[in-house]
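Following up on my earlier thread - several people asked me to post the actual chain instead of describing it. Fair enough. Here it is, all 73 residues.
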Amino acid sequence: MKGLMNFLSGMIVGAVVGATLAILLAPSSGDELRNQLQSRADTIQTDVKQAAASRRAELEKQLAELRTPRAAD
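Reply from S.P.:
Thanks for posting it. Predicted structure:
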């Protein structure tokens, strides 16, 4: 029973020390980090939408070219 109590108390102390270090060593606050992540996500989403629109336009142009009848040689 004493071994279990030592293990649990060590685990609790380790968790507290780890959480404290994580808070102290974090490069920015939670709000700042969330804002940065949201900004990056918005940028990526915009880039993906632009790339998809560009590719769609290319494919539609190719499809239109394939649908036009060719002159007989």
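Residues 30-67 form the longest helix (38 residues). That should answer part of your original question.
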